[in-house]
């Protein structure tokens, strides 16, 4: 069967995410590695909004839980994914899933990435705002103090900026008929504010060996697929201060001819985005299933029906 994976990003984590993880033996080594990084009371941390949105907690948690969940799902499958994409910090577990580097390396990179991003906006109050219902170009033209952090569709994007600017923009755009929602992310990710973090992260990545992936990796920075380790290395750093081309990522994954798609992570956001854009290729999210075995059965059924 041919299938693709989408690894969730920051903002969908919650206290009841993937409740079966702690009871799945194959997931335990990766969960333990995550616990060694952020502490054993991570579910309690998720219940606190301030902790849940803190980069140093959220990014290692997203990477660790995603890789633990993928380990459980992979154990129930007899084939590897044909193509993989990660949304924002989700690129780290995506790269590890594809064999570019180890799960332990992905966790370490999550810690480094979060620290560099926090340092880039030290002393500033920045964040992200989701806006639906208005095209990207006119928003940027009328609100030049914003950057488009993530392009999702022709009339949906995530915008980065300083907090006061985001609040004023949300009020103005709401009056124009847009649906605006602040995200639980405390930094202006994928924007001009992250320039120093991108440079620092690129330096960290230069010291690492990148293996050729066993699946096509579709990259946030370009929206294109690649298996070239040097392209992967450059793109993983570039996405920190460049717009995530998520609509192009979804299209590039669809062009791989996959039969179905599974989102690995806490929420259902990516699966829903996919089903809106490519309804002919079914997508589900791991969060919707009671365990990894149920998700694997859906993947196998969907692939046979293709």
Structure description:
The protein is an alpha/beta fold and 306 residues long. It has two domains: 3-121 and 191-305, Malonyl-Coenzyme A Acyl Carrier Protein, domain 2, CATH 3.40.366; 126-182, Malonyl-CoA ACP transacylase, ACP-binding (Alpha-Beta Plaits), CATH 3.30.70. It has helices at 28-38, 42-46, 49-52, 55-74, 91-97, 103-120, 136-142, 163-175, 195-206, 229-238, 246-254, 269-277, 292-305; strands at residues 3-7, 83-86, 126-132, 147-153, 156-162, 179-182, 216-218, 225-226, 244-245, 260-264, 283-285. It has a six-stranded mixed sheet, sandwiched between helices. The chain has a five-stranded mixed sheet with strand order 6-3-5-4-9. Helix 6 (103-120) runs antiparallel to helix 9. The radius of gyration is 18 Å and the shape is globular. It starts with a strand and ends with a helix. The model has no long low-confidence stretch (mean pLDDT 96).
Features:
306 residues, alpha/beta, Malonyl-Coenzyme A Acyl Carrier Protein, domain 2, Alpha-Beta Plaits, five-stranded mixed β-sheet, 16% strand
